[in-house]
Every structure is written in structure tokens, then in C-alpha cells.
Amino acid sequence: MVSQTVELLKKEIPLEQESVVLAEDTVNGLVLVDIINGFCTVGAGNLAPREPNRQIRGMINESARLARVFCEKKLPVMAFLDSHHPNKPEDPYPTHCIIGSDESNLVPELRWLENEANVTIRRKDCFDGYVGSIEEDGTNVFVDWVKKNKITTLVVVGVCTDICVLDFVCSTMSAKNRGFLNPLENVVVYSRGCATFDIPLEVATDTKGAWAHPQEFMHHVGLYMAKERGAKIAREVLIGAPEKV
């Protein structure tokens, strides 16, 4: 039934994806959103998957691969890590990713990023990485990062497609349109580098406080809404001209 609904959804709101080639004569930046144990590692916390998940595994693999490319080329990378204080809940979700816990750390496949000179790590205490980058004095770490590196195209990957990724993209697009992120021109969401969680209806029905969240359905909706905000949705991301066959 769910697969039929997803197919109907894709038919009613088709999502055009493109092959995005990043020019090497401009600065391209990569943002990784919440690819941490608490959301991606089986059994790591209240919001972690309960069993291996193909979409999440694919997201980790593609994000790690793309991060390697960016680091090899010494391009700027920013990684947002969901990190909450125990006395500041994030409704409507249960306690998760407490700062200082392993839940709030990068997944093992990405821990190497912590030792890369071109990588900026930002721990945030809210859904939206843009808002979570605001300091007490009103400055914004993400905005400063874009401006300092003169980033013209931003590639976004991570979890969850329809929550933290989408919130960050929406805020970034609004800020870009207001001229707050010059010289940023394009925001690209790499679909295979994103994932969300899966709670089937039958599980939600039998679980107090849970609500249905079909993975493929919500992943598609998240990407569609990001495109509605003006982001490009990429089925593949290449740096430099693709090789001629």
C-alpha cells in the first residue's frame, strides 16, 4: 500500500532532478547536516534507526564519498552536529543527541573530517543549522563561513531530508534572496546524499506518542519542498567537466 501511495505521489508531484556540474573556477562549498550517530547508527539513541536502513546507509556512503572529493580539492566543508543541552527539550521529539554524548558525534565513516583543515564543525541545538549558527552577539558562523570562503555554490547532504535539511535550505534560500549571503548563487540538494527516518503506520499506531512517517514518501516531499524554495535537486554532483565517453 505504501509503495503504491509513493508512486501516486511521484506521479502527482513529479520531482525533476538534474546532473549538477560544479565549475572549478569558482568556490564550491559542502554542508553536511546531522550525519551523526544519534540519527544514523543503529541503536545509538531514541531517534536512531532500530535496524539497518538502506536509504540511510546510501546517504552515509554518498556523503562520505563527496566529502572526500571536497577535501582532496581543499574546498570548504561545514558539518552541522545536532547537540542539545539536557534541560532544553526539542518538542515534539524525545531527548536525543545530548551534547557530550556519542549520539551527537559524526558517524564513524565521517569522523576523519575532524582532522581536516578545510572543515568547520558546528554544533547546533535546533533543527535549523542557519538559526543554530547564530551566536549570542548576533553574528552567524555559517554566514561568515560563506562570505570568508566566497562560496558561490553550496551542496547540501544529510538527515533528515524533510526536517533539518529542509529547514536549513529554506532559511539559506531566504537569506540568499535577501542578499545576506553574497556571493552565494546556488544551493544544490544532492538527493542520494540525503535520507530521512521510517515509521510505518502500523508501528506508529501501536506506539504511544509516535506518528506515521513513511520514509520514501517524506524523502520525496522534503526534496520537492526544497525545490519549491528555489534549491536545485541533483541526482548526481560532479566537479569539473564530465569525462567524454
Explained architecture:
- One of its GO terms (biological process) is pyridine nucleotide salvage.
- InterPro entries: Isochorismatase-like_dom, Isochorismatase-like_sf, NIC1.
- This is Isochorismatase-like domain-containing protein.
- With 245 residues, this protein is α/β, with parallel strands linked by helices.
- It has a single domain, classed as Isochorismatase-like (Rossmann fold).
- The protein is 32% helix and 20% strand.
- It has helices spanning 2-12, 37-40, 54-72, 141-149, 161-177, 201-205, 215-228, and strands spanning 18-22, 28-33, 77-82, 119-124, 153-159, 186-195, 232-239.
- α5 (161-177) links the parallel β5 (153-159) and β6 (186-195).
- α5 packs parallel to α7 (215-228).
- It is globular, with a radius of gyration of 18 Å.
- It starts with a helix and ends in a 6-residue tail after the last strand.
- The model has no long low-confidence stretch (mean pLDDT 92).
Average pLDDT confidence is: 92
**Helix and strand run:** HEEHHEEHEHEHHE
Supply the number of helical segments: 7
**Widest sheet, order of strands:** 1-7-6-5-2-3-4
CATH class wording: Alpha Beta
The total count of strands amounts to: 7
Q: Catalogue the unreliable spans.
A: none
**Helix content class:** 25-40%
Determine Rg (CA atoms, Å): 18 Å
Distance between the termini: 41 Å
Q: How many structural domains does the protein architecture include?
A: 1
- Going by CATH, the architecture would be 3-Layer(aba) Sandwich
